[in-house]
Amino acid sequence: MSNASYRDAIFSTPLDRVARFSFDEQVVACFPDMVRRSIPGYGQILGMLSLIAKRHLRHGAHIYDLGCSLGASGLALAGALPADAFRYTGVDVSPAMVEKARDTFSTECPEHAMTVLEEDIRTLEYASSGMIILNFTLQFLPPDDRDVLLARLYAALEPGGVLILSEKTVDPDERDNAWRVERYHDFKRANGYSELEISQKRTALENVLVPDSLDALHERLQTAGFPRSMTWFQYLNFASLIAFKEA
Ligand SMILES: Nc1ncnc2c1ncn2[C@@H]1O[C@H](C[S@+](CC[C@H]([NH3+])C(=O)[O-])CC(=O)[O-])[C@@H](O)[C@H]1O
Ligand SMILES: O=C(O)C(=O)Cc1ccccc1
After folding, report:
1. Closest-lying ligand to the alpha carbon of 101?
2. What residue ranges do the domains of the chain occupy?
3. 103-131, pLDDT tens digit by residue?
4. In which residues is S-adenosyl-L-methionine bound (predicted)?
5. pTM for the model
6. Starting from the edge strand earliest in sequence, which strands make up the sheet with 129-135, in order?
7. Could you tell me which of 101, 199, 213, 93 has the C-alpha nearest to residue 141?
C-alpha cells in the first residue's frame, strides 16, 4: 500500500446507505488527517505521552500501545526519548493499519525497538509492561468486553505501572451533553467538515463507537483493580485518564 496520506473526504458525498464505520484501506489512507480534524486535543495528548513516560517508566521498560493504528503514539515517544529508554509493542486488528505502522517505524525510527502485532487486543497474551496506552480504542470494543480487558491490563502492568486511557465520552446530564456535542460539531465545521460529512459520519459510528461517561470510565478502572485514577485532560467530549498500579 502507498504511504501517501490524503485529506479525509469519506463522507463528503451523499451515500444511499451509510455503512458501519470500519478501519479499512480507505480510512487508513486519510487517517492522519481524519484524527487531526476530528479529535480535539489529539496532538496535545500525544505530546504528553513522553513526558509521562519520563516520570513513570523505568529506563528500558516495555510500553504497549493498544489499537495503535498508524503508530502515532509510538512515533511521538520515539521522537522524544532515546532508543534505550523503552521497548514498544503496538497492537492493531486492522491489517492495513499494521502494515503502514510497520513501514513508518522502519523508516522514521529504525534505531528504536518498535514491534507491531496484528492481533485482537481482547485475546492477546500480555507480557509484563510498565506503561499501557489505550488512545481512543476502548470505545470501539463492545461495552461488555471492556471490564475484562481492563482487568487483564491491570494484571499485566508492573508495580508502579500506568495506564493511559483516552476516550470520546458522553455526559450523563442531557443539557451539558448537548452543549458539548454541539460545540464538537462546531469544532468539526471549523476544521472544514460539511454538515453532510458530520451527519453521515455520526450515522456510520452509531453502535460502533459507544462512548462511556467519565464516571463510568473511572468506575471501570476501579473494578479492574486500579486503586487510583484521574482525568488529566479534557476537551469538549474527549478526555484522557491516567490510572496507577500500586508500586
Ligand atoms: N479488538 C481490537 N483489537 C485491536 N485493535 C482494535 C480493536 N478494535 C479496534 N481496534 C483498532 O483501534 C483503532 C482505533 S483508532 C486509535 C487511534 C490511535 N491509538 C492513535 O492514537 O492514533 C481511534 C479512532 O480512530 O477514533 C483502530 O486502528 C482499530 O483498528
Ligand atoms: O469523528 C468523530 O465523530 C469521532 O468521534 C472521532 C473519530 C476519529 C476517527 C475515527 C473515528 C472517530
Report:
1. 1
2. 1-247
3. 999 999 999 999 999 999 999 999 999 99
4. 42, 67-69, 120-121, 135, 202
5. 0.98
6. 113-118, 86-92, 61-66, 129-135, 157-168, 238-244, 228-235
7. 93
Q: How far is the CA of 192 from the centre of ligand 1 (A)?
A: 24
Q: Give the ipTM.
A: 0.98
First vs last C-alpha separation in the chain: 44
Which residue, judged by its Cα, is nearest atom 1 of ligand 2? 38
Please name the CATH architecture into which domain 1-247 falls.
Answer: 3-Layer(aba) Sandwich (3.40)
Please identify, by atom number, the ligand 1 atom nearest to the C-alpha of residue 69: 28
Structure confidence at residue 2 (pLDDT): 57
Q: Which residues are annotated as a binding site for S-adenosyl-L-methionine?
A: 42, 67-69, 120-121, 135, 202
Q: Atom 4, ligand 2: which residue's CA is nearest?
A: 38
Contacts of 101 (CB under 8 A, 6+ apart): 68, 69, 70, 71, 74, 90, 92, 116
User: What digits encode the pLDDT tens for the residues 32-82?
Assistant: 999 999 999 999 999 999 999 999 999 999 999 999 999 999 999 999 999
